[in-house]
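re the bet — no i am not wrong, look at it urself. input seq straight from the record:
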Amino acid sequence: MAHDQTKLAHGHTNGEAIKSKRNISRFFVEQRHITWVMLIGVCVWGVYSYKSMPQRKDPDTPVKTAVAITTWPGVNAEKIEQLVTRKIEEKIAQNANVEKIRSISRTNISVVYVDLDENFPGSQIGKEFDDIALKLDSIKDLPDGAGPIQFIKDFGDTSALMLTVASPKVSEAEIDVRAKEVGEAIARNRAQYAPAGGGSALHDCQHPHSPGKHPRRAGPAQSAYRLPQREGCG
């Protein structure tokens, strides 16, 4: 009897301890109306964010990398590393938004890459690169014959051109006519630019009754037109 009472008291104590602890999962299970309101709010917010997301055929991808190139003709890589590359790295490191600095020192040339922070806003990249360029311009103690420092910040910029060819729906007969015109134009160009004196050229010659070869039917978008055979094709 005393053992049973001890178990009940112990279980009662554990239950009170569990209820007294803060538990996020239990809170949302018990407060279902709050859970539903928050779930609906998150769904509405997600749909709104998806609808308002900017869309571009050529999205702007900011390049957060620049390069500083310095030439010093006739000098080995070790000397360039000590007298040129290290000075450039020290100046670039003074910018607080620089995440990584990589350098390559070779004979006659020093190349230093600078990478900005990944989370840095794209609209401020040009301003930070201009600040680094000003710091590099302040280097006045380069050895004689070294320099000038060429700071290239737009080598990652690219230009995109999109060409679209579209036409209204046409019939199979018109497709055949167009294919025939294209074939005739190709034949004329081949004849115009053919090498003089009967130079060598590659031709696909096939006898219509050769064994193992069967003519294919022209599909809806295929033309039955065949280029005229050249001499030497049996």
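see?? The longest helix spans residues 172-192. told u. also Confidence is low (pLDDT under 50) at residues 199-234. so pay up
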